[in-house]
Amino acid sequence: MRSTSSLSIASLPNSKIGKLKEHLENLFPGQWINSNQRTKTLSTGLTFIDQGISRGLARQKISAWVGPASCGKTSLLRSIISRWLSCGFEIAYIDTQNKLLASNWICLENAVDKDSANKDTNNQSPGKFWVVRNLPDKDYLWATETLIRSRIFDVIILDLDLADQNKQYNAQINWQSNKVYSRLQNALSKSKTALLFITNNHRLPNAWNFYARLDFQWAANIQYTEGLHGKTMLLPTINCSITKDGLSHNTEVPISAYAANRLFTHSPIPDRRLAKT
Amino acid sequence: MPRIACLRIPRFQIVVQQKHEQLKGKALALVNGKLTASGYSRARIFMHSQEADKYKIRNNMRLAEAKAQCADLILREQDEALYKIAEQKLVSELISCSPKVKVQTMGITLLDASGLTLQGGESQFCHNVLKLCSKSGYTDSSVGIANSAFAAIVASQINKKRFNIVPQKEDAKFLAPLSIQYLELSEEIENTLLTLGITTLGQLASIPVSELNKRFSKFSEIIWKPWELAQGIDNCQPTLPEIEKIYECFLDLGSAISHFSEITFALKSMLDRLINDLKQNGLCAQEIILSLYNDTNKFDERILPLMQSTNDAKFLLEIIRLSINAKPLTREPTSIKLIISRFTPEKWEQSILDKDEHSTRPTSNKLTQTELSLLQRFSTRLGKNTIFKAQASNQYLSENAGVWIPMTEDSNNSLKENLLPLDLKYLQEKGHHPIASDLVLRPTLPAAEVLVHLNNEKPAAINYKRRWYKVKSITNPEYLSCQWWSNAVAKDYYKIFVEPLAGTTSTMQNDIHSHNINNQTFLMLLTYDKLKNNWRIEGIYD
């Protein structure tokens, strides 16, 4: 005879449920995170970031994601953002190049709704995703600082094209200077925000002390999604290199995307016969 | 006998809205309900512009029908406060023509036109009023003059003349041949009158009092007023306009001030005084106007609308400071004028004490105080269109399937020209998840034309920014053909994974650096336009 024992979670006190969730979060990162819990780092749901040397994305610190144009960093970031939003985190994205397509960033908070773990445990409304665009070049720093000081956002993403020498902001704001770093770090120290610095060039400010730096590049091997008449989607793997406190770790990240469906926005024609029957 | 003039401004709300948002010449419609971002609500068209008339937009039309008639129709909710301010401004200007001015309804204003013999007569008076209206931007206005207000109102809308003067004591004669529709009776009474063969105002006026009481005993109180109006009797008279309290402060600094910090104290004390005044009257500031003078010359005026009404002087001072930081002063001011141009009654909210410990966040999409304050800072310093949220739009092309909606806009007014909102609830009920699929595309603006080497009718290599790239991998084309009724599109979409072709390095090294191209691989969106017969790189997946 096999004896089974069951544990009723409802009967446990709140403090114990919290501890249980924390324990499960360590086992399954990104599944049990809650925006109301004040942790030092934010889980991304990606094991190599959360359990690797960087231990997630640190609050009150500046992290850097570096990679050339077309290396998969924004796609990876979007999947993390959708997870954060469904967990109730507030996110701001400063798009200095005005190159984000709105159609790529809609309904992100619903993206992981299928994930029953999150849906059942996090009984809260999804977070907000704000995108800052059309900024005058000289105001990037002011905008970042103001967003941090507002203490609204858990994550602020500063997407900056440091490679473009022609850009005015390189002349108006010296991103290499310690002053800029100090201003941002000073604002961060009084907030709950994690600042993520995304750039497409390896010439990062030398004087800046990043919490962790992630370098991205497409890997050689490519996955395909086969359709009826051949390949319908290309999904190259991303090579990611994490550097923190002199330590480094290289890993490959496979991308899984939903099947491309350009016409997803069209609502199906309602079948009124069903309602009558 | 008094003489009364009626100034009629057709589509007054539309004209004010067009002036306010600089939408002159565009198809605009006001709705008599709420506009929601999620889809067309039950609201209907309340009033529309002349331009919308060309697309056969009619009042009381459903929004979906109106959008079907004119895809570019701009929809707005009614802004009563805005119309009220415009109305008050007009009244204050009309006082120069006549001391007694009274607003009858929106767009209809009564003026006292008595005793004009020595001032050029009634025609001159009409000219003066119309000239003043044209100056204020109401070019389509008309004037009617008569002994009674009703006759003047009717006179202002017949014959399509700019002005219409009814001779002294001839109101009844003027009204007699006109239809009873001018009385704006209820449908029931109008039908009763028409059944009795009473079609004109003269026929209604000719009914003796005894007969009227006998026949209309059921509506005796309701029919008396229209009967009097048909006789040319109307007690409505223009009166002296009520003086509205103006919240403004003027300070002469004595000398030219070169730096903003030197006037901070002065501005703070001005704001404190104005805010105290507002508080005493239970009001809250909604818009402030800062005017700066050099001697008597006004060289700068800043209209600072507030996203949420406030009585916090410190916050208002910060808004002024942000505005001056964003657009520094061109000259040194010697005096300052501060006006609270818009205000609302102060609101008091009851706080929820038995709040559930888990529901710390408001469940609705309503912005919190902190968020509003942040948006206000961005809006004042950088303009309205800086912070956005992505909104799904029911368009055919993927690049148009989403629209950036500014957060600073009222969420109720987010139905814009090109946004066709999705019914997300309906989609979710049907098991559809409108989740952004695929990798993130960074579009190249404008799309770059490329030279393509074909192998078996499939791209094998491309020349992009003066460099050849070998296509390592390519998807089957996704063919999209649509919008034949407006801007026809017929395109093949390929996703290509490319790497620089060995041995064909660019001849211009500098060019490579300037375009940030090195020996890396790219995942791109390549399109073939069948109508224009050209190949383009529309964007790079990142």
Q: Structural class, judged by helices and strands of chain B?
A: alpha+beta
* Amino-to-carboxy terminus distance of chain B: 81 Å
| Class per helix and strand makeup of chain A | alpha/beta
What is Rg of chain A? Answer: 21 Å
Uncertain spans of chain B: 506-517
Largest sheet of chain B: 8 strands, antiparallel
Estimated helix fraction of chain B: 25-40%
| Integer-rounded radius of gyration of chain B | 32 Å
Specify the oligomeric state.
heterodimer
Q: How much helical structure, as a percent, in the residues of chain A?
A: 25-40%
Percentage of β-strand residues of chain A = 15-25%
Task: Return the average pLDDT of chain B rounded to an integer.
Answer: 82
Number of strands of chain B: 22
Compute the average pLDDT of chain A: 76
Largest interface: A-B, 81 and 78 residues
Number of helices of chain B: 16
Report on this structure.
- The complex is a heterodimer of chains A (277) and B (542).
- Chain A is α/β, with parallel strands linked by helices and 277 residues long.
- Helix content of chain A is 25%, strand content 24%.
- Chain A has helices at residues 14-27, 47-50, 73-86, 116-121, 140-149, 168-172, 178-189, 272-276; strands at residues 41-42, 57-58, 62-66, 91-95, 129-132, 155-160, 194-199, 213-227, 230-244, 247-253.
- In chain A, the strands form two sheets. An eight-stranded mixed sheet of chain A has the order 5-4-6-7-3-8-9-10, with helices on both faces. Chain A has a two-stranded antiparallel sheet with strand order 1-2.
- In chain A, helix 5 packs parallel to helix 7 (178-189).
- Residues 113-122 and 259-277 of chain A have low confidence and may be disordered.
- In chain B, the strands form five sheets. In chain B, strands 15, 16, 17, 18, 19, 20, 21 and 22 form an eight-stranded antiparallel sheet that branches. In chain B, strands 5-6-1-7-8 form a five-stranded mixed sheet. In chain B, strands 9-12-10-11 form a four-stranded antiparallel sheet, with helices on one face.
- Chain B is of the alpha+beta class and 542 residues long.
- Chain B contains 16 helices and 22 strands.
- Chain B is extended.
- In chain B, 28% of the residues lie in helices and 27% in strands.
- At the A-B interface, helix 3, strand 5, helix 5, strand 8 and strand 9 of A face helix 14, strand 13, strand 14, helix 15 and strand 15 of B.
- Strand 5 (129-132) of chain A pairs antiparallel with strand 13 of chain B, so a sheet runs across the interface.
